[in-house]
Amino acid sequence: MVLPPPTTSPTVRENVGIIDVTPIGKLDLRGPDVAKLLNQLYVNKWSKLGVGRVRYGVMCAEDGVVMDDGVTGRLGEDHYLMSTTSSGAGTVWEWVENWLQAEHPEWQVHVTPVTTAYARINVAGPHSRELVGRLTGGIDLSAESFPYMNVRSGRIAGVDDCVLWRIGFTGQLSYELHVPAGYGLHVWEALLEHGQDLGVAAFGVEAQRILRLEKGHLIVGQDTDGLTRAYSAGLDWAVKLDKADFAGKPELVWQHGETGGMRLVGLQPVDGSIVPPEASQIVRPGRGTTLDIVGRITPSRMSPTLRQSICLGQLDASLASAGTEVTVRLPDGRDISARVTEHLAHVDPSGERQQLVTDAPEPLAAPPSPRGSLAARSSRTMCLQRSGPPEGQRIRRCA
Amino acid sequence: MIDLSGMAKFGVRAASEGPVARALGTGFARTTRGPDASLVVGSGPGEWLVLAEQAASSDVRARLESETQSCDAFASVVDLTHGRALVRLAGPRSADLLSKVCSIDFSDDVTPDGSALRTSVARLVTDVIRDDQDGVPGYLLHCERSSGRYLAEALVDAGTEFGIESIR
Predict the structure, then answer these.
(1) What value, to the nearest 5°, has the Cα angle with vertex A215 and ends A212 and A216?
(2) Which CATH architecture has domain B7-81?
(3) Which ipTM value was assigned to this complex?
């Protein structure tokens, strides 16, 4: 399949873009034992996460299969805010409650789902610091004071009680704004209005998917499946087997000692004009005239940055070394060659773009503030929201 | 029916029987009025929902944080204002309406003024709070923000035969 290079992601690579990522799951965690809980839930370590810091975490089920991922920030001494995948928000909440209620009722932790309490906007691109800085007051955005993987609380576009994260999924300098949900539209419009001279534009999920693929960031459920343990998801760096315990540890100890299985790798077709469709099988000669399936393409897109097709794939560990050439069977029966790349990231593997240092911006002399009462906003928001009855529900309309 | 989603809403968690519960003045499944006219709802075991006018939000939050901290017991206060929807259903036929979308017995003997329960309303997890005003039966219905419009539409649909009016 040959696709023209998309035109949307250069906005994020060269200027600044904003995307609505509100559905990402959010759990408010409070109590003196939150770090114990996080150490139990995630494969990596949480005991030394300082106030104002953020860490990426991966959760595995008890069979070691990757279950969910996301960042968690420490907002206060006993106050953390966890992000989950959008589709995993409910499952993770139940998972957390299960650990607290059934396994460790002695731990002092309160968990509250706040997914719908915050609108969440990702501001990404070389000009993101400048744009966010125009709308914030009292938060020092300089690279020294607010480095990558940090979180701050404060006012954005006149809205109090916002949470500002320096994280990103696109591989660019980027910020995520958690805004009390009733003011989400106000902040979104303020970003568009005050970033015009910076070339701001909204971008959507397709552009985000291309950007994350260029950066080689994992999507649980696309780059993993129901059998993918942490080491097969390229998460070797995250798994800390020297922790006393965590969900899935026994299975991961076992997998760590194994040499086979699948590995997540970066792949680039040798003919960079061909984009193998997602789920294309990776094959090698088997017995006689048969072919053995040794992997599959997970995402694939034409990279607007590299001007060639790029992929991630699950590949048999024996073929996962950088430079190995593999055969991808296309749906039309043709075979193409693709080469395993050194990193999962196709673009900027060293992370220079997301560590970009720019001048600390000046806030606007008269920052925008929300108009109208919250009550009016709530009514309006309820009117704008799409809704429907739960699955299977029938409402009898009375005469 | 009136949309009260703009009201301030705080979730309080603490041991169901202890100093925080005593300070809040009510337990599971009952309501009481706070000193600042807020409505304190025992919404679950060890869980309270505190509702207040938006203008009093900062004061109520400060009071709740101060009260819970002074109790020297593990407790938390979370601002849920933007994360939950709230509607009031009021009128002599409101119990009849609710009975169409909820299997709870809403008779005065079983669900009197000041009672609170978490149940299924139109197949949606909802806190139902009996809160009469001036002798008129009334119910506050509290659910996740993203389900608010659905709940409102389901109530309007169920209330058509009773002449329901939706007031914004």
Answers:
(1) 85
(2) 2-Layer Sandwich (3.30)
(3) 0.94
